[in-house]
């Protein structure tokens, strides 16, 4: 094992931030739903995939990648709302194991339906023409599209932040996270807010799915690894915490990038090991509040 | 599992004794009226001791073949293609077509008069899932043969289980040296090329094409298959004066290869050997292109996955070297290959990948072994395989090596065509060379195969 060169170190530092931001966004959707509704949504990876496929279809129809992004968000939003109205809302009062099982089941059904319709072979979503090419960032070459993706993701995170922290709806959502019973007693229809939150979480996953589509293979089970990773991020950052999801995502991205310079085989192992240590030392995560469910 | 078997064996023993007694008496007449009775009586006349699913699995008019392939995960496209290859082979065997007879001369409809029935399970590219599915095939369905794999980790786990159960297991795709090396099994037979034979065949060709004294970086999936191909490619390229400068080990099923690719970009390599397979190969190669690696480095795919070309596109493949088990243009030189490719295309509307071909070939080679052995009795069938007779196939004459159960067979070197030279949309490769199996087989001692007892 040799020490990495400075250009390599800086490259990986930058790449850790880029991959981390994406993890932050996916995890934010997961953590908002959990924080507000108390439901651990194991169909989150499937919603990510739905975003990619809906975007793929929009791209086929319109030929525009911007419209594909809109299509991906709407697709995931619709599936998310349907999920909440038809099934998930009947599970708010049920034990967490039931919620986990039902959302896991929904995830499988969505994935298999997509496989039935589209087949198992990857669908092509090419990098948009304005994203082709490579930028030389002094110390590293980085694909243009990945840089643009960082900007998309950062903007999406900023919008989510503004929505949660600067609007009345956001205030209600955050109040709901703290004590949904009290919010209900204040005369606010918590269930309508719940639907809204579920929709936002699903749309976030769908957005992440379609902006990621050009660099991944669009297949029915593409969401699975991201579901796993977003759990790690949420555990590190603190379950139900929005800032925790962002910081946790960046930390996870950096851990993978940094350790890969020394030993690529151990980069994911290291991430899980650090998560385990953190769980032992600080079970509520970096930004979690002790005792909150 | 073993408890299950202890209970099963005496029971099937009684069945067999009853069967033998009946063979001479009244039931013999009943069997004859079934139409297939003659060969059944012929079987009953040869008495073999009960072992595995024998004779429980051959009591009816059909035998069961268990197919466990990945239908989800990074290797699912190859798994689905394998299913199509199995179905084609089974259909030909059950109908006793001229193609089936070309593989197993003397065959009529079905195998020894029995039709093949099959079941399909999704092994999810996970050894534990595969083992569960195969256990069910063996205990519930009394499978006489189990087959299917895309991952070597799955093939090795399945091979171990079937060896314990004394049931023939035929892996489809498995590129690890270990499959017929340290993890070889008495009841398992591999027909495809693999890490060592692929690397030995490919190394001199890429030296001629790319030049001498090259620096090589590897992208290696972090499990037995990847490690095997890495070790073999390293061995043969270093022997011809190339140096190894970097090896990245992403896990199977990686979706973002950026960290690994950045390490390779900074390694000073001028050749990128991508060992990834299935969807991982597609994603990693696309991302390597996006990171500008393919402008600086020559790409080599030592174990080219089926459908790689369809998914990355011809532009990216131009001039890329790799090895394959089969490529459909072999139909232009071999009548058996033509019959296979034409019929596959008629049924499925596209050319077969090598995943379909290896599934087809393994099934036909099994039919041949059973036909020649004239029984399904597993140890006798294993013995038939081990005779190592020359068998005519659509990849030329092949034979099994008794010492490690590897098929001695050619390795095909392919090179991506210029898009303007493609005659049709699936005409992605030129076959540069078909390297004969004898020239690339490792010495038997090389990978430590020790076959277990047959009963």
Question: What does this molecule look like?
Answer:
The complex is a heterodimer of chains A (293) and B (455). Chain A is mainly α and 293 residues long. Chain A is built from 10 helices and 2 strands. In chain A, helix 1 crosses helix 8, helix 2 (44-62) runs parallel beside helix 4 and helix 6 packs antiparallel against helix 7 (190-212). Chain A starts with 5 loop residues before the first helix and ends in a 12-residue tail after the last helix. The mean pLDDT of chain A is 89. With 455 residues, chain B is α/β, with parallel strands linked by helices. Chain B is globular. Chain B has helices spanning 2-24, 26-33, 37-45, 76-95, 98-103, 127-140, 152-164, 195-210, 224-239, 258-265, 278-290, 293-296, 308-312, 314-317, 335-348, 354-373, 378-386, 437-440; strands at 62-69, 115-122, 145-147, 168-170, 215-219, 243-248, 271-274, 298-301, 321-324, 391-393, 396-401, 406-408, 411-416, 429-435. In chain B, helix 1 (2-24) crosses helix 2 (26-33), helix 8 packs across helix 9 and helix 16 (354-373) packs across helix 17 (378-386). The chains are: A mainly alpha (293), B alpha/beta (455). Chains A and B meet through helix 1, strand 2 and helix 9 of A and helix 4, helix 10 and helix 11 of B.
């Amino acid at each position: 094992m040799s020490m990495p060169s400075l250009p390599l170190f800086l490259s990986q530092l930058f790449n850790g931030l880029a991959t981390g931001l994406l993890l932050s966004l996916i995890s934010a959707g997961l953590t908002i739903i959990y924080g507000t509704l108390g439901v651990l949504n194991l169909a989150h990876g499937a919603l990510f995939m739905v975003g990619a496929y809906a975007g793929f279809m929009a791209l086929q129809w319109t030929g525009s990648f911007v419209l594909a992004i809109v299509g991906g968000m709407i697709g995931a939003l619709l599936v998310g709302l349907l999920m909440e109205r038809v099934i998930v809302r009947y599970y708010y009062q049920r034990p967490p194991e039931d919620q986990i099982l039902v959302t896991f089941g929904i995830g499988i059904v969505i994935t298999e339906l997509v496989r039935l319709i589209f087949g198992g072979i990857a669908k092509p979503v090419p990098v948009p023409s304005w994203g082709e090419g490579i930028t030389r960032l002094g110390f590293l070459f980085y694909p243009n599209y990945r840089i643009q993706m960082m900007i998309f993701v950062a903007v999406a995170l900023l919008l989510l932040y503004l929505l949660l922290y600067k609007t009345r709806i956001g205030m209600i959502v955050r109040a709901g996270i703290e004590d949904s019973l009290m919010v209900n007693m204040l005369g606010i229809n918590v269930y309508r807010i719940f639907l809204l939150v579920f929709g936002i979480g699903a749309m976030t996953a769908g957005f992440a799915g379609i902006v990621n589509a050009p660099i991944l293979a669009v297949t029915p089970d593409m969401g699975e690894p991201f579901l796993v990773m977003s759990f790690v991020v949420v555990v590190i950052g603190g379950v139900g915490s929005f800032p925790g999801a962002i910081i946790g995502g960046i930390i996870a991205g950096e851990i993978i990038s940094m350790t890969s310079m020394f030993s690529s085989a151990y980069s994911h192992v290291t991430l899980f090991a650090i998560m385990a240590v953190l769980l032992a030392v600080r079970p509520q995560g970096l930004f979690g509040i002790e005792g909150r469910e | 599992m073993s408890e299950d078997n202890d209970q099963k064996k005496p029971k099937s023993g009684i069945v067999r004794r009853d069967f033998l007694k009946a063979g001479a008496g009244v039931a013999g007449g009943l069997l004859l009226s079934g139409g297939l009775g003659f060969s059944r009586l012929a079987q009953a006349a040869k008495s073999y001791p009960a072992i595995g699913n024998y004779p429980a699995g051959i009591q009816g008019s059909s035998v069961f073949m268990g197919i466990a392939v990945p239908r989800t995960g990074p290797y699912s496209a190859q798994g689905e293609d394998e299913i199509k290859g199995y179905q084609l082979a089974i259909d030909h065997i059950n109908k006793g077509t001229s193609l089936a007879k070309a593989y197993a001369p003397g065959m009529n409809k079905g195998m020894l008069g029995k039709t093949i029935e099959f079941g399909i399970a999704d092994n999810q590219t996970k050894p534990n899932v595969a083992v569960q599915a195969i256990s069910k095939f063996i205990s519930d369905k009394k499978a006489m043969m189990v087959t299917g794999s895309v991952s070597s980790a799955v093939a090795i786990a399945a091979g171990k289980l079937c060896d314990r159960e004394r049931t023939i297991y035929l892996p489809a795709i498995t590129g690890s040296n270990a499959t017929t090396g340290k993890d070889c099994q008495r009841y398992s037979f591999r027909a495809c090329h693999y890490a060592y034979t692929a690397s030995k065949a490919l190394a001199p060709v890429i030296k001629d094409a790319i030049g001498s004294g090259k620096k090589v970086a590897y992208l290696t999936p972090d499990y037995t298959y990847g490690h095997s191909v890495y070790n073999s490619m390293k061995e043969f390229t270093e022997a011809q004066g190339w140096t190894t400068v970097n090896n990245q080990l992403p896990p199977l099923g990686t979706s973002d290869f950026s960290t690994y690719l950045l390490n390779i970009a900074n390694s000073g390599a001028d050749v990128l050997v991508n060992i990834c397979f299935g969807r991982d190969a597609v994603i990693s190669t696309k991302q390597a292109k996006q990171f500008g690696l393919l402008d600086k480095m020559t790409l080599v795919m030592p174990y080219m996955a089926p459908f790689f070309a369809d998914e990355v596109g011809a532009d990216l493949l131009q001039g890329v070297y790799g090895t394959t088990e089969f490529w459909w243009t072999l139909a232009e030189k071999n009548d058996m290959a033509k019959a296979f490719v034409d019929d596959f295309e008629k049924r499925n509307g596209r050319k077969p990948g090598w995943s379909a071909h290896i599934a087809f070939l393994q099934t036909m080679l099994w039919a041949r072994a059973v036909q020649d052995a004239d029984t399904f009795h597993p140890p006798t069938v294993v013995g038939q395989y081990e005779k190592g007779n020359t068998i005519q196939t659509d990849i030329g004459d092949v034979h099994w090596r008794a010492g490690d159960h590897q098929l001695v067979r050619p390795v095909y070197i392919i090179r991506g065509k210029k898009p303007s030279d493609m005659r049709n949309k699936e005409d992605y490769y030129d076959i540069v060379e078909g390297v004969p199996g004898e020239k690339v087989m490792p010495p038997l001692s090389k990978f430590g195969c020790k076959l277990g007892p047959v009963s």
